[in-house]
Amino acid sequence: MADQAPDAPALGVVRTAVRGAADQEPDADAADEVVGASATGREAGAASTVPDRATLRLALVVGGLVLAVLLGFGLGRINGGGASVAAGGPDSVLAEHTHAPGTGAHAHGTDQDAAAEAGGLAISSDGYTLRPLVAEFVAGRASELRFQIHDGQRRAVTRFAVVHDKPMHVIVVRRDLSGYQHLHPTMAVDGTWSVPLTLPTSGIWRAYADFTAVADDGRQTATTLGVDLVAPGDYVPRELPSPATTSTVDSFAVEYRGVARPGLTVPVDFRVTGADGADPALERHLGAYGHLVALREGDLGYLHVHPEAEPVDGAIRFWLTVPTPGRYRLYLDFSTGGVARTAEFTVSVL
C-alpha cells in the first residue's frame, strides 16, 4: 500500500500527533545569550586596544560555541536529519514525486529498484520488528489480533504518523490470496495494537502491518512488516481466479484498465459503474477516492501503490510498480453511499 505518496501527490494525509525534539526550533534565549556574549567581548575590545586575559578567554569560549553549532548543523544535514525526512523501505522512496497529466509508463532512475521492491516479506525491516502477541486462531471464531512494533532497542514504539487517515493499516489474507481484510487497529498507551479478527477458514494467513514510525529525534520511517497467522484444520487451497478486467461487488461493476510492466511505474485505472449503468458518486476513502493493495502470488510480496488526488476522467487512478513477472492479486477498496466495498482482480505481468 501504501504509504506517504512517493509517486502521487495524494497518497494520504500525513500528520504527526507528537513532535519530537528534532522538530523544535532552536532556543531563542540561548541564541540571544551567544550573541550577547560576542557583543560583550567587542565592547571590552573597544575600551582597550590590548584585550585582557578575561576578554580573550570569553572570545575563545564564544568562538567554540559558534563552531560547535555550525558543525552540528552540518553533520545533521549530511545525515539527512529533520523530522520531515522520511527514511526506510520502498514506501518512502520518491516521496515528493508527482505525475503530470498524460504521464505514461516510466522509470525513476536510481530510485526505481528501491521503489519496485516488495514489502511485507519479513517480520523485521528498517530497524523495526513486528511482535505478535497471538498468532493462532480458531477458524470461524471471533477473536482479537494483538501486536506491538519494536524499535532497534527492543522498545515498543508509540509514535506513528497518520497516513491514509490512519496511523496503522493491517491487511490480512490467506496464503492462497483469498479472504482479504483491511483493518485499522487501535493502540494502547504501552504501544499494543489490537483489532477484532475472524479467520473464516483454516489455513496459513498472512498479516501485514503498514505504518510510518516516528523516532525519538522526529525522523519518520515508512515500512511494511509481515507475519504468518495459523488457523489449524483442514486446508484446501483455492485456485487463484484467472486474470480478468472486470469484477462485480454487490450491484457495482468495476473495470480495470492498465498494463503492468516489470520495473516500471505505470498508471492503472478503475471505473465503477452502478446497476443502472451510471457512474455512482465516489466518496473519499482513507484520504483518497480509492485504496489499492497488490500482493504477489507465491511469496505474497506487498507492493506500494499510490493514488491520484482526484478521479481521472471519472476513474480512480493509481501508480503501480511491480518488481517481477508473475501473477498479482489486486484489492480495490472504494466507497459509495457511505459503504466501503472491495473489488478483486488477478493481473498477469509478463
- CATH overall fold name of the largest domain: Immunoglobulin-like
Dominant shape: globular
CATH homologous superfamily (4th level) name of the largest domain: Macroglobulin (MG2) domain
Helix vs. strand class: alpha+beta
Q: List low-confidence stretches.
A: 2-50, 69-112
Provide the CATH top-level class of the largest domain.
Mainly Beta
Helix content: 10-25%
> Rg from C-alpha positions?
26 Å
N→C terminal distance: 22 Å
Question: Strands of the largest sheet, in order across it?
Answer: 2-12-11-7-8
**Helix count, DSSP H or I runs of 4 or more residues:** 3
The appropriate CATH architecture of the largest domain is Sandwich
**Strand residue percentage:** 25-35%
Number of DSSP E strands: 21
The number of distinct structural domains comes to: 3
What is the arithmetic mean of pLDDT? 78
Give a short account of the largest sheet: 5 strands, mixed
Following the backbone from N to C, one meets helices and strands in this order, namely: EHHEHEEEEEEEEEEEEEEEEEEE
What labels describe this entry?
350 residues, alpha+beta, five-stranded mixed beta sheet, five-stranded antiparallel beta sheet, Immunoglobulin-like, disordered N terminus
Describe the 3D structure.
The chain is an alpha+beta fold and 350 residues long. The protein has three domains: 54 residues; 128 residues, Sandwich (Immunoglobulin-like); 104 residues, Immunoglobulins (Immunoglobulin-like). 15% of the residues lie in helices and 35% in strands. The chain is built from three helices and 21 strands. It has a five-stranded mixed sheet, with no helix packed on it. A five-stranded antiparallel sheet has the order 3-4-5-10-9, with no helix packed on it. A five-stranded antiparallel sheet has the order 13-14-15-19-18. It is globular. The protein starts with 14 loop residues before the first strand and ends with a strand. The N terminus is likely disordered.
